[in-house]
């Protein structure tokens, strides 16, 4: 199961899609909208995707994980559009005969998704917004007057 | 060759357009395409930053040659997220 949708995600549906009697372990990761970034309150996230390529790359992530970990049952669902605080933007479910492959493959799936799938995340604050991961695209001559703006130069405190 | 270049996210907002059109000579590469778009939209990205191109929904190197009818998109850094 690979899903890209602007509708709310159902983690149970995604998880059930990988459950089989031959599997003894199921790991499901949920990515949810956190209410803060760098000490500032985040009011919502917005995801934008290059749909055709995103679906292609999500399939590629799944296929490569199958080959790399020797397991079949992997499902990924990603949401686009506005995702409010506490809501789910990403579901990755992996099932395997034993737990170690499921944990490792699920973790690696999330890393790969965030590296190669063309889906962009915008954080909205009370006083502005910023595209995540685009810090290297800031212009030096903007830094001065944007310092007080939107937290674009804030340093993440970490998860 | 004329290309309707799709822009997403940061690039879309900075250009103020989802699609920008560029004309390139035969034999032009993906790198030539980004150079042409940057000439029209110098505030798309700082000069020292490479702009990634997707050709027909696949990441392309700057030296990949373009053919008429290719679907071309500029790809800002993807969502990332801290581990």
Structure description:
The complex is a heterodimer of chains A (159) and B (83). In chain A, a hairpin with a 2-residue loop joins strand 8 and strand 9. Chain A is built from 4 helices and 9 strands; from the N terminus they run βαβββαβββαββα. By secondary structure, chain A is α+β, with helices and mostly antiparallel strands. In chain A, strands 3, 4, 6, 8 and 9 form a 5-stranded antiparallel beta sheet that branches. A 4-stranded mixed beta sheet of chain A has the order 1-5-7-2. Residues 146-159 of chain A have low confidence and may be disordered. The longest helix of chain A has 19 residues, at 51-69. Chain A has one domain (2-146): Alpha-Beta Complex (Aldehyde Oxidoreductase, domain 3), CATH 3.90.1170. Chain B is α+β, with helices and mostly antiparallel strands. Chain B has a single domain, classed as Beta-grasp domain (Ubiquitin-like (UB roll), Roll), CATH 3.10.20. Chain B contains 2 helices and 5 strands; from the N terminus they run E-H-E-H-E-E-E. Chain B has helices at 9-15, 30-40; strands at 2-7, 19-23, 52-55, 58-60, 72-75. A 5-stranded mixed beta sheet of chain B has the order 2-1-5-3-4. In chain B, a hairpin with a 2-residue loop joins strand 3 and strand 4 (58-60). Chain B is globular and about 30 Å long. Chain B starts with a strand and ends in an 8-residue tail after the last strand. The chains are: A alpha+beta (159), B alpha+beta (83). At the A-B interface, helix 2, helix 3 and strand 8 of A face helix 1 of B.
């Amino acid at each position: 199961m690979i899903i890209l949708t602007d509708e709310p995600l159902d983690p149970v549906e995604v998880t059930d899609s990988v459950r089989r009697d031959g599997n003894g372990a199921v790991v499901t990761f949920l990515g949810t909208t956190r209410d803060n970034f760098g000490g500032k309150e985040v009011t919502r996230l917005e995801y934008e995707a290059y749909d055709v390529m995103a679906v292609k790359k999500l399939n590629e992530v799944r296929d490569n994980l199958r080959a790399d970990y020797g397991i079949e049952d992997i499902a990924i669902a990603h949401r686009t559009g506005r995702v409010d605080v506490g809501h789910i933007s990403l579901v990755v479910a992996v099932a395997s005969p034993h737990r170690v492959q499921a944990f490792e493959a699920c973790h690696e799936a999330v890393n790969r998704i965030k590296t190669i799938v063309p889906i962009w995340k915008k954080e909205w604050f009370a006083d502005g917004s910023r595209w995540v991961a685009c810090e290297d695209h800031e212009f030096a001559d903007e830094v001065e007057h944007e310092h007080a703006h939107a937290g674009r130069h804030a340093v993440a405190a970490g998860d | 060759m004329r290309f309707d270049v799709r822009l997403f996210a940061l690039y879309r907002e900075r250009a103020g357009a989802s699609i920008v059109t560029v004309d390139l000579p035969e034999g032009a590469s993906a790198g030539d395409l980004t150079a042409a778009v940057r000439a029209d939209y110098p505030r798309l990205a700082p000069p020292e930053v490479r702009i990634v191109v997707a050709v027909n929904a696949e990441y392309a190197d700057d030296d990949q040659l373009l053919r008429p009818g290719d679907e071309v998109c500029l790809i800002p850094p993807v969502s990332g997220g801290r581990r």
